[in-house]
Specification:
Blueprint: H1 2-12, H2 21-52
Length: 74
């Protein structure tokens, strides 16, 4: 997986200004595919995190924080 990310990063960081038309077309298509794959991975990771946490992204689990009472106890 690290090799794939390294190769993708090399493609993403290419300078398109000196590319001929065919190479530029390949670069644009490849860049679009990389971004789509990365978005899908991020979407899947977010869905997994939401499922694992019961759909609530708060640390307390219920999204409610108890206010301290007048004697300082929660």
């Amino acid at each position: 997986m690290a090799e794939l990310i390294t190769a993708e990063n090399a493609t993403m960081l290419m300078n398109p200004t000196a590319m001929d038309e065919e190479t530029l077309e390949w670069w644009k298509l490849t860049k679009t595919q990389i971004l789509a794959r990365r978005r899908e991975v991020a979407r899947a990771a977010m869905a997994a995190a939401m499922t694992a946490g019961g759909g609530d992204a708060t640390a307390s689990g219920g999204g409610h924080v108890d206010a301290p009472s007048s004697d300082g106890e929660a």
